[in-house]
Specification:
Layout (H helix, E strand, L loop, with lengths): L1 H18 L6 H25 L8 H20 L9 H25 L5 H26 L9 E4 L2 E4 L2
Length: 164
């Protein structure tokens, strides 16, 4: 959630920077709106995931539904046209989408197996974290902050790579 709030505050800084001169840039305004929409969808899905009662029979179905919604939001986010001023964020959005898609699929696989596979669940969680890390990196780019690498990532241009 902190990454999403950072991303949203980064967009506010962008909006203030580009409207301070009295000129509004439609490309940046559209990008800002799309990123804020993404943040809202992901934040809501995250809150819903935290409220799931995992002792209920519907918990697996609910969890998978929220993960699919998040995956769709990440796909939409990766498809956004990124303004030239933030081109380095584009590859990260694509990476985030790929990691979220893999995490969602692995979680689904894990929950549908007869015996719960803890290793698969842990791998899915690692992929989920990598997706969210990329969102954090994008937030740093939008705020003009240096990227603070996590979980063995390295950063070259517009791609964050794994050391694993």
């Amino acid at each position: 959630m902190k990454k999403l709030k950072t991303l949203a505050s980064g967009l506010l800084c962008i909006a203030l920077t580009f409207t301070a001169c009295g000129k509004e840039n439609p490309e940046l305004t559209q990008y800002q709106d799309e990123v804020l929409n993404f943040c809202t969808v992901i934040e809501e899905a995250g809150k819903e995931l935290l409220q799931i009662d995992f002792s209920s029979e519907e918990s697996v179905e609910s969890t998978l539904e929220y993960l699919k919604n998040m995956d769709t939001a990440f796909a939409d986010f990766a498809a956004i046209t990124v303004p030239k001023a933030f081109v380095s964020a584009e590859g990260l959005a694509d990476d985030a989408y790929q990691y979220m898609t893999k995490a969602s699929a692995l979680y689904e696989e894990t929950f549908q197996e007869e015996n719960f596979d803890l290793e698969k669940a842990e791998e899915a969680y690692k992929l989920y974290k990598k997706a969210m890390n990329r969102i954090g990196y994008i937030a740093n780019i939008l705020e003009g902050k240096p990227i603070e690498l996590k979980d063995g990532d390295s950063f070259a241009g517009s791609k964050a790579t794994d050391s694993e």
